[in-house]
Write a structure and sequence with these properties.
Blueprint lengths: L1 H62 L3 E7 L6 E7 L5 E6 H20 L9
Antiparallel strand pairs: 1-2, 2-3
Length: 126
């Protein structure tokens, strides 16, 4: 009986150790996965910021200097109208229907991306 009790005690100790090792391994795996998810989220955030900067630069190029963008619903259709308005005078400098403006931005955005890739543009924020 004593041998059986000793064997069970040693077996329980080994089981506790292997369970503890398993828990440690699982905890380490969770930490690694959390770090990977955090890294992916940071990469996605950086990509999103880059895309936003590209779109802003494209809009600035389409609108021109000393203007601001005004977006309003068209009176004759459910679409939006995009206007470049002179900052100083408030005069409408240019006006585009939604589909034309989106196409302009896409084209200019491709140009901006090409300029950035070629090293022709620098970040404005140092």
């Amino acid at each position: 009986m004593e041998v059986n009790a000793l064997t069970q005690s040693q077996s329980a100790t080994r089981t506790d150790r292997s369970g503890e090792e398993r828990n440690q391994a699982l905890a380490e795996k969770r930490r690694a996965l959390n770090a990977e998810v955090a890294a992916r989220a940071e990469e996605a955030k950086a990509r999103s910021a880059d895309r936003l900067a590209e779109v802003r630069e494209a809009v600035a190029r389409v609108l021109g200097a000393n203007t601001r963008l005004s977006i309003s619903r068209s009176e004759s259709s459910p679409d939006f109208v995009y206007r470049a308005i002179d900052i100083d005078t408030g005069e409408v400098v240019n006006e585009w229907p939604q589909d034309i403006f989106v196409d302009l931005i896409r084209g200019v955005r491709d140009d901006v991306r090409t300029d950035v890739d070629a090293g022709l543009m620098l970040d404005r924020v140092a």
